[in-house]
Design brief:
single chain, about 625 residues
């Protein structure tokens, strides 16, 4: 009874420790991927989409290229919006709570494995406090990692309970944990090999082989899940961002780097600069391979059972993201569960030390935990907002293009234009002619009113790749805004020649033809093509003005009406329609249209409309 009460008290203290360590999270903001998957994702505000989360992977993001099958994560986002509204605070708080619960589950898992109470507590504390968990805690989009880990831990814990007590309900809960894991993130399939690993640890290979028939249910879960997401898996494998050879060789270096981060978590960042490895000839690859093979050999042949368990656990958790070639080579949140394996190894060594020098071992562990807390607090503060996040990333990885670009974007957002210009220039020095960096730099110069520098920035992008239409359109708009319509026309025509199909160029060319070339017939041609691609109120108005200029009054009126169907309160449409009625002798309709202008809220046109009403009816006030 004393042991049970003591364990319950410890779990409460552990939960409170995690929440206290990350108390600052509630005031933090959303971060980069959070915007396309959460902030701008209107589907998460509608509870009616609940079932669609489990059938439509495109709901995960407003960006079709970011589609992922993670229904449990979407349900958690839906709950945040439904109960706590739009702010980022509740999202961060839930992330903290999930991590705190996972730390408690780690403690329970260790106890179920038969590890001593003291060691179980120590492993749970290492997992709870380790600075490498901060990305999973503070980066809302990393909730998929912590939710997946929750499902894996539930599956492992209740498998061990079922294995000991043999009641079917524990097996069902274990199976449900596995389902929860894979529905949170595809890496959740590791629950199956991890179950096999812990069974081998507890019972040995011979007894485990006799229990393989009980793994059919788990295999069925994995099989159904893989068939559900096979499309995305085959795309990742069939059209990888790098070859499998390059992926494996690169991950050899990454694993050594992960080990460095686990043992020395002081230089953490959302973005680590890492070069791909093309062949075995590099010294880094050879040295890393020898180191990893030697480490594995020593542990598996000379290490104790508990240390072998920790290393095996770490290897299994790292394998999925290491085999599948992902765009980002490494992320700290990918080793969230790996920290558990690392904790087992650390505590195993401390346990041997404890048996010989008890007081010194306790003191060493206490100092180690204090260092973890200090480092976690420092790294947690980095996630306060985008500016602090990417400022740290630039500091840690000054050669990272992504870090420099994101840093510049955050500086623009905070109106630090001088700093942003410097950061964009640095980014372009790393990747000359990069379209996003060059275009953003050009837009920055437009914002601060430096016309010549903006033109130069856009031109550099176009010179590097003439098919970058966004920079060409921005350059054309800049020329048009500054009265250089001939140069603007040239670039809009070139954009059309190079495949711009959104109707933007035709709309602008129509305006140039109408306003600068005084050629309404040519303008009509451009506007008609634009309206086929992307109809909007302003284009219908411009089209109507062009039709009126050549005397096609009926078609002009119809076009104004089309504009008003799209924007019923458009003062511009009502004013031009009133002028058309006035010039064609329909005074009553003109008067009604001008009155609509006055009530439309367009103060600039309201004065002109009143003047026209006075001309039509001198008694109007």
């Amino acid at each position: 009874m004393h042991t049970i009460c003591g364990s319950r008290f410890f779990t409460l203290c552990l939960f409170g420790l995690v929440c206290g360590l990350h108390w600052q999270a509630h005031s933090f903001t959303f971060h980069y991927d959070d915007y396309h998957s959460i902030v701008y994702n209107t589907a998460l505000r509608d509870a009616g989409n609940f079932l669609s989360f489990f059938s439509d992977s495109t709901i995960f993001s407003v960006d079709p290229n970011q589609a992922m099958y993670r229904p449990i994560v979407l349900v958690s986002y839906l709950a945040n919006f439904a109960f706590f509204g739009e702010g980022a605070g509740s999202f961060h708080v839930l992330n903290v709570i999930v991590h705190a619960v996972n730390a408690v589950l780690v403690f329970i898992f260790m106890l179920q494995l038969g590890i001593s109470n003291l060691c179980s507590r120590s492993i749970a504390v290492v997992f709870a406090l380790h600075p490498l968990t901060t990305e999973t805690v503070y980066y809302i989009s990393s909730r998929s990692e912590s939710l997946m880990s929750f499902g894996v831990l539930i599956s492992l814990i209740f498998y061990l309970i079922w294995s000991s007590h043999g009641k079917n309900r524990w097996f069902i809960i274990s199976l449900s944990g596995g389902i929860f894991a894979v529905l949170s993130k595809s890496v959740g399939v590791i629950f199956l090999p991890l179950i096999f690993l812990v069974e081998v640890y507890k019972s040995g290979v011979n007894i485990t082989s006799k229990k393989l028939k009980f793994f059919v249910g788990y295999l069925l879960v994995v099989g159904i899940y893989v068939s559900q997401v096979w499309g995305s898996i085959s795309t990742a494998v069939g059209e990888p961002v790098r070859s499998l050879t390059t992926q494996i060789l690169t991950q050899i270096k990454v694993w050594v780097y992960y080990l460095f981060l686990l043992t020395s978590p002081y230089n953490l960042s959302v973005e680590h600069f890492f070069l791909e490895a093309e062949s075995l000839e590099g010294l880094a690859i050879i040295a890393s391979s020898i180191f990893l093979v030697s480490l594995a050999f020593l542990v598996f042949f000379f290490g104790e059972r508990l240390i072998r368990l920790g290393l095996g656990f770490s290897i299994i958790t790292l394998i999925p993201a290491s085999i599948v070639p992902l765009i980002v080579i490494l992320n700290e949140h990918r080793i969230y569960l790996t920290i558990l394996g690392f904790g087992i190894i650390i505590v195993s060594f401390l346990q041997k030390f404890f048996l010989q020098k008890r007081k010194l071992a306790v003191l060493a562990f206490a100092v180690y935990c204090i260092c973890l807390i200090i480092s976690s607090c420092q790294q947690g503060a980095v996630w306060r907002n985008d500016e602090s996040l990417w400022q740290n990333a630039v500091k840690v990885a000054p050669r990272s293009f992504k870090a420099q670009l994101r840093w510049a974007d955050s500086l623009v957002k905070n109106r630090n234009f001088a700093g942003a210009e410097k950061a964009y220039s640095h980014a372009l020095s790393l990747r000359p002619g990069h379209p996003v960096a060059g275009n953003n730099l050009g837009q920055l110069f437009v914002t601060v009113g430096e016309f010549d520098k903006a033109v130069q920035a856009f031109n550099l992008v176009i010179e590097h790749d003439p098919d970058i239409l966004q920079s060409r359109l921005n350059l054309a708009q800049l020329y048009l805004k500054n009265g250089k319509w001939i140069q603007a026309e040239k670039h809009y025509l070139e954009a059309l020649r190079r495949g711009e199909d959104l109707g933007i160029s035709e709309k602008k060319l129509g305006q140039i033809s109408l306003s600068h070339r005084s050629d309404p017939i040519r303008a009509i041609d451009f506007f008609e093509r634009a309206l086929e691609k992307s109809p909007d109120s302003n284009t219908w108005i411009s089209y109507a003005v062009s039709l009126r200029a050549i005397g096609r009054f009926k078609q002009s009126e119809t076009s104004y009406r089309q504009a008003l169907m799209l924007s019923p309160d458009s003062g511009d449409a009502w004013y031009n329609l009133g002028n058309l009625y006035r010039d064609t002798g329909r005074s009553d309709k003109a008067e009604a249209a001008y009155k609509k202008v006055i009530t439309s809220g367009d103060d600039n046109l309201a004065g002109f409309a009143r003047e026209e009403l006075v001309r039509l009816r001198p008694t109007f006030k």
